[in-house]
């Protein structure tokens, strides 16, 4: 029996799946409103939902619309997030602000995890996690995605983190925060566009069933907090790290020159990388999200079977 928080509005389909104990996969919305240009953003959102369904799970894209936290969206909701000018980027601390003002908000990994967890969803698929930014020793810019991973019992499937972040510091922080980082089918921690980051992942699983057993073992022991399941982009879709390095350095220089920081930093860098690569990074980004959706659906199916 799942208890669902009364402030949330679920679609009938998601509510039914959760009450049946059927597999559900949460999906974030910052990636739609602030992570990709239109119309690729809404096309990606629709395709990811299709892939999750094809994998035997129910997709639940999460956002705040008119001040209401929504678990599951219709086509109109996805289109609004992809096109509306006034959609705030909402991490956990911003939730009360958009809710109390009746505003629209696209949820980050952190806020999506929290809302998913309040709804009783255990598996969440995204593209890349936020983390510790390069230069954080000076700026203290470290994403609330990391603290949320330490608090909330949701498994997050991502393609690792982009090297716009300091990957070594991000991995150190996840260790401090008790967050298991589990690589899927590889020993190496993946770097989003690239399969390799030069950093080892501390743990590895090779099947969705193993991932589901890992989740059950963690939460069964009362070890609260998330699981970061990192899934490398497929070889045929990757952009080698050697090609991305100079692009990312350029994007960071442009960000510094433009005086951008804080919550605008990640969206700015993502947008610049798309521009500098002439759209090649966008193709890779879409491919890796789809790849994560395939894995996330399988993990949700296996985990739901364990819970029956
Ligand atoms: N990384 C990406 N694409 C994204 C994001 C990160 O490759 O769209 C988004 C996610 O929603 C993530 C957020 O949770 O950026 C992190 O933002 P910040 O660094 O401000 O916490
Ligand atoms: Mn930040």
From TrEMBL:
Top-rank EC class of the record's enzyme: lyase
This protein's UniProt keywords: Glycosidase, Hydrolase, Lyase, Manganese, Metal-binding
An annotated Gene Ontology molecular function: hydrolase activity, acting on glycosyl bonds
Keyword Lyase recorded: yes
Annotated cofactor note: Binds 1 Mn(2+) ion per subunit.
Catalytic activity: D-ribose 5-phosphate + uracil = psi-UMP + H2O
GO term, biological process aspect, one: nucleobase catabolic process
Amino acids binding Mn(2+): 141
Cofactor needs: Mn(2+)
EC number(s) stated in the UniProt entry for this protein: 4.2.1.70
SUPFAM superfamilies found in the cross-reference section: Indigoidine synthase A-like (SSF110581)
Active site: 28 (proton donor), 162 (nucleophile)
Function: Catalyzes the reversible cleavage of pseudouridine 5'-phosphate (PsiMP) to ribose 5-phosphate and uracil. Functions biologically in the cleavage direction, as part of a pseudouridine degradation pathway.
The protein's assembly and partners: Homotrimer.
Family: Belongs to the pseudouridine-5'-phosphate glycosidase family.
Entry protein name: Pseudouridine-5'-phosphate glycosidase
Species of provenance: Nocardioides seonyuensis
Organism ancestry: Bacteria, Bacillati, Actinomycetota, Actinomycetes, Propionibacteriales
């Amino acid at each position: 029996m799942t208890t669902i928080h009364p402030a949330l509005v679920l679609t009938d389909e998601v509510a039914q799946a959760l009450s049946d104990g059927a597999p559900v996969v949460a999906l974030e919305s910052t990636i739609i409103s602030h992570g990709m240009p239109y119309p690729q953003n809404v096309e990606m959102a629709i395709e990811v939902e299709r892939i999750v369904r094809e994998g035997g799970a129910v997709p639940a894209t999460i956002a705040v619309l008119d001040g209401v936290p929504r678990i599951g969206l219709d086509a109109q909701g996805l289109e609004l997030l992809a096109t509306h000018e006034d959609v705030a980027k909402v991490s956990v601390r911003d939730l009360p602000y958009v809710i109390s003002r009746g505003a629209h908000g696209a949820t980050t990994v952190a806020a999506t995890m929290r809302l998913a967890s309040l709804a009783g969803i255990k598996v969440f698929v995204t593209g890349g996690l936020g983390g510790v930014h390069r230069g954080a020793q000076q700026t203290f810019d470290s994403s609330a995605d990391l603290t949320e991973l330490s608090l909330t019992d949701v498994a997050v499937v991502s393609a690792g983190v982009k090297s716009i972040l300091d990957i070594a510091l991000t991995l150190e922080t996840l260790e401090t925060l008790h967050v298991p980082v589990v690589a899927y089918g590889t020993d190496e921690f993946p770097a989003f566009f690239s399969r390799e980051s030069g950093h080892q992942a501390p743990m590895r699983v090779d099947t969705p069933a193993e991932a589901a057993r890992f989740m059950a073992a963690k939460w069964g022991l009362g070890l609260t907090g998330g699981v970061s399941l990192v899934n490398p982009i497929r070889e045929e879709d990757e952009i080698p790290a050697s090609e991305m390095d100079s692009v990312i350095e350029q994007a960071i220089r442009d960000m510094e020159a433009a005086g951008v920081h804080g919550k605008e930093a990640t969206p700015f860098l993502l947008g610049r990388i798309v521009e500098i690569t002439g759209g090649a990074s966008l193709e890779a980004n879409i491919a890796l999200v789809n790849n994560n959706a395939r894995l996330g659906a399988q993990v949700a199916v296996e985990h739901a079977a364990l819970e029956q």
